Amino acid sequence: MGLTGKRSEKGPVCWRKRVKSVYMRLRQLKRFRRADEIKSMFNSNRQKILQRTDILNQEWKTRRIQPVRIMTSVSSLRGTRECTVDSGFSEFSSQVIPLKTLNAVASIPVMYSWSPLQQNFMVEDETVLHNIPYMGDEILDQDGTFIEELIKNYDGKVHGDRECGFINDEIFVELVTALNQHSDNEDEEEDQHDTECSKKIPSDKIFEAISSVFPDKGSPEELKEKYKELTEQKLPGKLPPECTPNIDGPNARSVQREQSLHSFHTLFCRRCFKYDCFLHPFHATPNTYKCKNTESLTDSKPCGHNCYMYLIQESSASLVPERAKTPSKRVGGRRRGRVANSSGGSRPSTPTVSAETKDTDSDREAGGGDVNDKDEEDKKDETTNSSESNSCWQTPVKLKVNSEPAEHAEWSGADASLFRVLIGTYYDNFCAIARLIGSKTCRQVYEFRVKESSIIARAPVDDVDTPPRKKKRKHRLWATYCRKIQLKKDGSSNHVYNYQPCDHPRRPCDSSCPCVTAQNFCEKFCQCSSECQNRFPGCRCKAQCNTKQCPCYLAVRECDPDLCLTCGAAEHWDSKNVSCKNCSIQRGAKKHLLMAPSDVAGWGIFIKEPVQKNEFISEYCGEIISQDEADRRGKVYDKYMCSFLFNLNNDFVVDATRKGNKIRFANHSVNPNCYAKVMMVNGDHRIGIFAKRAMHTGEELFFDYRYSQADALKYVGIEREMEIP
Amino acid sequence: PSPVVAMASVKKPKMEEIQADHELFLQAFESEYVLSAPIFLHRSLTYMPLRNPRLNAKRKMYKVDEMLLKVEKMKGDQESHSLSSHLQLTFTGFFHKIEKPSVNSENEQNSVSLEVLLVKVCHKKRKDVSCPVKQVPTGKKQVPLNPDCSQAKPAAFPSLLVSSNEFEPNNSHMVKSYSLLFRVSRPGRRHLSGEPNGNIDVLGELPNRKTRNALRGDGETTFIAQMTVFDKNRRLQLLDGEYEVSMQEVEECPVNKKRATWETILDGKRLPPFETLSQGPTLQFTLRWTGDVGSKSTAPVAKPLTTRNSDAGATESRPSGPRPAPLAVKDSISTNIQTRKEQILVEPRQKLRVFYQFLYNNNSRQQTEARDDLHCPWCTLNCRRLYSLLKHLKLSHSRFIFSYVPHPKGARIDVSVNECYDGSYVGNPQDIHSQPGFAFSRNGPVKRTAVTHVLVCRPKRSKPSLSEFLDSEEGEVEQQRTYISGHNRLYFHSDSCMPLRPQEMEVDSEDERDPDWLREKTVTQIEEFMDVNEGEKEVMKLWNLHVMKHGFIADNQMNQACLLFVEKCGAQIAHRNLCRNFLLHMVSMHDFNLVSIGTIDKAMARLKEIQGAPRVEDNSIDGHTEAQKHSKCQNLLRSAPSD
User: Is Nucleus tagged as a keyword (chain B) (predicted)?
Assistant: First the structure.
């Protein structure tokens, strides 16, 4: 220890130097690697382009194209101009040829590249300024402070600006290993003690030195922990420990139901029907959803000669399986990280929230500690299962190990996992489970069930506190909903907040419910009961839902195909002929638009076919960004005098600059032929562009930016007052 | 007729000023000059009634029998007409200017003697070597030499009558053609003629054009000219009108009878140059076909006198057939137009002068160009009436604003550049593609997309009135707007900014629900998860692509969506060994309360079916396509370049 003390006097300086030099070397290596990657990527892209141009060229070669000789251009009427070539030598006569001038071709307006979208796309706030906008030297010279202010908005962080202090996990690990080799050498020279230990985990002095070089990265202890974490992860094969092995793969393990379904449950967006969707950062897990289906789960008839039912009938002894707690190992959301091969910093455009926030969030949703919420969950399970499981649980299923010699079956990990998954859905319908597993007979399944009974959770027989379902629900609601909408409308200020499905188990949607406070209706995505007072009941129109007679139209909502069952919003999925005219945005029933240079400014968008008044034209799509982000981006757009920002609600803004659809080219006019309307479409606010008057073929589309951009919601209010039929 | 350009500003501008002004003028109008008017079939335009050769009003009443009636009536007419009508020739004068006429004025005679002969060319008989020609003298008159047109009274002019009996078929010889031979003899010695042309020219021109000739000297000079009355096909060549005939000087010897035949004269291959009229001497006369001597013109004079019945229909239908020589008849009125006369809005018959006043450079300067006909100065279309001209200018040349100002001598049209002209293409949208990318790519016939045009349109039209072209303050914007609605511009692809070709109009190529980049994005996004195993990832990717492709929006679509998923991707799921993962996905969907247990059963049953099927036909074509699909999918799943 004395030696260490001695070293610590001059050691840190030396180590610091070493850290710095190794760090610089690694950085340089990384830069080279990156440059190589870029090169190879460029070359492969180049190759792709060449292939595509080859295809195009082939196509052109098959066509016969010759220049057309224009007979006489008009310009020849006005005196012929000539080109003369004088050689300067007398022996060569000067050559004269009539000058033919080509007519000037007007250049097309400027367009910055953008990606096409037909649905909004949520992106995170940008924490670094990705590029310093260039808008001509004059503007920069005039107003040098603009860029400074801009950078200040991002706390001085500019993309690619990583002169020092930049360190990520990958570099950190590499740094430690590189330094560790140094320390090994040193150790061998100086003394032999602690060698075993330093083989495994580098000595503290390395972390001390790194910590002193990069003070913002935490204390030596934190760094050491981090290093352990990072290296451990790499050791046990390719998959991180919390990853379930592929159930179809050779390494499938026998795991619990929750574990098997964990990825599917946590990544599925119940609103978009997609995994890891582009629009909703928070996905609710299904175990908190209520099961409403009341399907009969058991086949009443035996599936064959060897069906387990014969076994049951034979035996009279009953064995009610005990209920046991399900150990749930995996909690927390999915973590997205870099795949080992890919390089670079964190993904800036990930639409979902970062791993940390997501984890915590779904922790909360799924019940942070397993133990605390487990009972809760189980109870929930009980309640949810109670109603539909009545039928199957009322016929008492007697579980008993058969006296006959059991068919001995090998249960692989995959089969066992699958069984546990299916038992949670099919309960005691062993025939069906056997059919789905495929490799086992129902008798084998039944026997396995008996063996497993000690650890399988099952729904209890008793109804706890869920009141029996009543049938009067709809009528009661219909009596009140109109008044409710009216109330909402009158009391509404100009603020409309984004909708988030509410989730407050065992509490009704009262003043503490986020939906109620945000003055939103509860939607089908909410965790509250379907009888919730705050739910929007949908319409029962038989007409086109394009007047205020329709409660959906009145509430500036599109008809919900799961609520409005009479108006046609839930029919004719494939055809464009839907009787309900209030579901155009969700169905994407946009008009064909054509782009051409505008008669007013820049590009314009033109309608291909004539439209009627109030007909839906297109949705205004783009990136969904927070209001703060919109403020930051807006500063740049204002400088460019070109903005595609569109206020969606109090929380979010649609920005069609980078991603959008053709309607983004519609220009502003004080006397427009279109109007914009922010509508609630199945839980999302979306912007619809509608025809303000009848339009002819080929008309350019305009709408009034002032309403939409400054205050979209005020605009909606005005529209309401204007009594549009 | 060449335009006379006159500066309106009275001040004498300096040379530079003129040039600068000229530059400004060009700046304002030059760019606009390069333009093409849309091509119309002018005779079908309602505002150009004079260009419409036929009448539609009678069509409704038309009956087939009328044809017979018409022919019979015509025959009768013709007979009575042929008996009673005369060809009346009134001679205005013989114009043969000598240089400096004022100096020699006392020596000049003020009249020349004119002899008119009717030349009948008969059909050859068997023995004849050439066609027999008969010359029938019809009279001699003294015709004023170089009279002043403006002073002379029409009544004072000498006139001649040729009885139409002369044109009746002759018994001995079938007459092939009739022509008039004018012979003018002028006293005084002939000295010089710069006319090497041996042909006799039959040309008509405007009478007010003075002719000049360098002919001096004395002695008797003879000039002759011949005009066809009826040609070989018995078509009438001489209609009512004023004529100016170029005369040809002849040698002392009289015209050889044999050489003076119709054929001989016209067989000359070389067409007389236009200049002959201005150089040679001319004879001016008015020709009328009259019913009685001294009476007014009989209306349908221009009908040919048919002698051969077999030919009647054909000759009737082609009143203005090909003429043997260019013959410009001033103010000639065709039969149709004459009958139409009543319907046309009466316009001043006298010559209209149209002044074009170009306004440019803040309306402060102007240049006036006067034309004395109703041709459009931009596309030289003869509009024939002022109303038609103005309408044409306004509709076809919308780059300019035209406003009509009444003028004592006719009309003034103010021309200014239309600042509101939108510059988009006006005309056939198919021709748009001769713009940027397509300019030189068309060679010969190309396949075109079908274009539907409204062929018949009968909107309410107000009575044509010149007042609509007057400069009015209100509604001016409306006037300057393009009249044609529809796709009259070139569209571009929104992704590549390439011009949209006509065959691409119908497909909305840029509005896919699942654009390439988004498909790739969802795949890479799922690929980036570290704690999701590869089986789960594959099923999730397939499912996401499936949902994106079909755009499901409702919970109650999910049962169907899952079954469709098996249908579409079942083979892949089976092939890539993802069946259990698929089952997990289905169970998860059920946990979310989106699908029923029945759907899980159905989907799995179908998957088993599919799983069994391709194994059997693994080596068949199906298996092959399956493999392709697989590799395609792998391509798709390849992760995108990292940033």
Answer: no
